[in-house]
Write a structure and sequence with these properties.
The complex is a heterodimer. By secondary structure, chain A is mainly alpha-helical. Chain A is built from twelve helices and no strands. Chain B is an alpha/beta fold. The N and C termini of chain B lie far apart (about 65 Å). Classes of the chains: A mainly alpha, B alpha/beta.
Amino acid sequence: MPPILVIARLTVQESSRRRLLLALLVLTLVVVGFSAWGFNKITTVTNSQGQTLPPDQVALVSSQLLIVIVFMFSGVLALSAAVVAGPLISGEVESGLLLSMLARPVRRSEIVVGKWLGLAVLVGVYAAGAGLLELAAVEWATGYLPPHPIDLILYVAAEGLVLLSLGMLLSTRLSGITAGVIALVAWLIAWIAGVVGDIGTGLQNQALQNVGVVSHLLLPSDGLWRGAIFAMEPDTLIASMRALGTFGRANPFAAVDPPPTEFLMWVVIWFAGMLALSVWSFRTREI
Amino acid sequence: MAEVAQKTEAAISTEVAAGTPAVKTVELTKRFGSTVALAGLTMTVPRGEVFGFLGPNGAGKTTAVKLLLGLLKPTAGEGWLLGKRVGDLQTRRRIGYLPELFRYQSWLSAAEVLALHCELAPLPRSSWKDEIGTALETVGLTDRAKDRVGTFSKGMQQRLGLGAALLGEPELVFLDEPTSALDPVGRHDVREIIRGLAARGSAVFLNSHLLSEVEQVCDRVAVVDHGRVIASGTMDELLGGSAVRVRVTGLTQADKNDLSSFGRIDDEGDQLTFAKLEPNRVPELVAAIVAKGGRVYEVAPRHETLEDRFLQLLEEEEK
């Protein structure tokens, strides 16, 4: 097996043996169970005439609640990715774990890419597993299924990968805890900067709008989250928000348009750049 | 058939490289900012030799090993391992390494750690079982093969690291303080392992500050201090002289200072060791002590140990 795949397998194996996967699975099942119960209650809510809500209103409420639940899932994924990626390289350099491995015919780039690949698999599996479970629970409880479920999972997974990539780059030079904290703070700042950009759109203020654009370029996590939101919104909701004009766009939990193709292309370049930077940074680090 | 071809290729490669030393460095230098960790190390370690690299803590021993393994980049100078420039990926297939800071995946079993190193080495999968079994037996961990490394004591982890360094019958093995966590039995085992490596023709680069250990197994040594080699040679070359230990009371510090004309004194209170004192000068020494009012209880001539020589070298270096 090529060294990259050996390192990737080792990374997955470590998460499994350290029971990280089990912990995430149990927590996910608990959240999905509770949310299924909560979604089911939407169908039993009655209005002042004692009638249950019509299907279009159930779909509207469900879509909004689903956005909040998925925001939590994406947050857990982003936080987990940052916390796990923070000590990914530095932890093993500091402990000496990498010394004997790097004396083997293994390139440092293979260590970096292998570790990224291993965690990327975990991020993808978690996003797909938790996403499909949650969507199945919502569909069972309310009959509502978001219009673009696959896109939703891809956007959430990509957001996790953004944090993983940032955490790993920082981990090539900084201690695990510092790298993890910086990645987390950067994620929150990017989200807030995205909100500021929305407000700028609402107020038609170019400077504030630019804050959002620049933050999406530097750390595309919020831009990808907007893609996930768009994938969850019913067409009727999008149409009504579009009718509101710029004010309809000033909402951090709403997206009127899907992420532009240029942005998605930039995300691909961003990932390649982060990996290349990580490899360069680790190759030039003295151990 | 393929295996035969592989062996033939390996044999030819070994033959071609046989004339090259196991380790060669020319003015290898490493600075960390203004701190000089290694100052122009020039040395050659022939194949099949057990080479001791001695020095006090912080002398630059581990830095030298890390430079040779490509874990650090030299500020200046060059190095070759088994005839190839330092950093050559293929050469690392033929090298074993036990780091000073030994740590292995705590969530894996001992056998799994060794399998990982077989895979990274890389060794043919068909040989893994034998390689792992032999390595575990050599370092005395056969009974703990399936136990998680996280449950191991430091000494057992060091044994495991040694086992990993022995996988694939390497031509050159770097052992950085290989007995730092071991008990006397473990130290004895390591000496036997080193002798076994030498017997089958592997070169061993032994970093240590445990001088008795080095003295017992090394063919040649180099003493390094403050990043510089201050002496090197075979044991016979380094330990040419003899020493005399005297148990004496009744001497003042001034008396002891006067007696330093007989040689460098290692003063341990009632025990004075005179380095490099020839046996024929012992009566003269005893007479001088008695003349100063000293009461002599024991006089024991002995050969100079590596420790005597090491301390002498460091003392000379300080001056």
